[in-house]
């Protein structure tokens, strides 16, 4: 682990209960790290994970990094106070979005295992930036390998078994999506964010039977994608 301290942090107002995953969305790792350490930028993260698997520590875990922006998850609105923010180096949709290398995800998994153990973070509180800010963000995006994290109980699995369409109206789906954790004031953005996370092969913003069935399974006591 390399220490590259950022001055962009302050004190937490809440206990740590979440992990938020981002992509850097810049052309290379050096540009991203420089920006996250720039006092003028007023952004930061606790960690950056490079494509070759190097972990850069920028803000101490007990401090509040500035990574989430205006966001919401399961009733929490000061997500910076409640979360560890991890930036994963990837050019993102603007600069040539591409799959995340295995070495990078291996390093991320090792980092997250320690964080989860230290703070007792539940799988449902490991989220992407697009989950907490659906109207503004789309990272870490549809290529992010959530399934690898889910197999190690570091994130919720995509439900795959015994899926049943509950036949909700669109308003009923949005009510259930809000209950699950999403901000739904922009219904299309919320639906797209849900699809990007749990049905990435078809991100069209349409509430269909598959989306309803996946969401219903996620709301059950035991996620139906678990082996």
Q: Could you characterize the architecture of this molecule?
A:
It is a single chain. By secondary structure, the chain is of the alpha/beta class. Helix content is 34%, strand content 13%. The chain is built from 9 helices and 8 strands. Strands 1-5-4-7-3-8 form a 6-stranded mixed β-sheet. A two-stranded antiparallel sheet has the order 2-6. It starts with a strand and ends in an 8-residue tail after the last helix. The model has no long low-confidence stretch (mean pLDDT 96).
Strand content: 5-15%
The secondary structure category is: alpha/beta
User: Major β-sheet, in short?
Assistant: 6 strands, mixed
Strands side by side in the biggest sheet: 1-5-4-7-3-8
What attributes does this structure have?
single chain, alpha/beta, two-stranded antiparallel ribbon, 8 strands
Short description:
It is built from nine helices and eight strands. It has helices at residues 29-36, 79-82, 92-95, 102-119, 129-132, 146-151, 170-180, 187-198, 209-219, and strands spanning 2-3, 9-11, 18-23, 47-49, 55-57, 63-65, 83-88, 126-128. The protein is an alpha/beta fold and 227 residues long.
Topology:
Blueprint: E1 2-3, E2 9-11, E3 18-23, H1 29-36, E4 47-49, E5 55-57, E6 63-65, H2 79-82, E7 83-88, H3 92-95, H4 102-119, E8 126-128, H5 129-132, H6 146-151, H7 170-180, H8 187-198, H9 209-219
Parallel strand pairs: 1-5, 3-7, 3-8, 4-7
Antiparallel strand pairs: 2-6, 4-5
Helix pairs in contact: 7-9
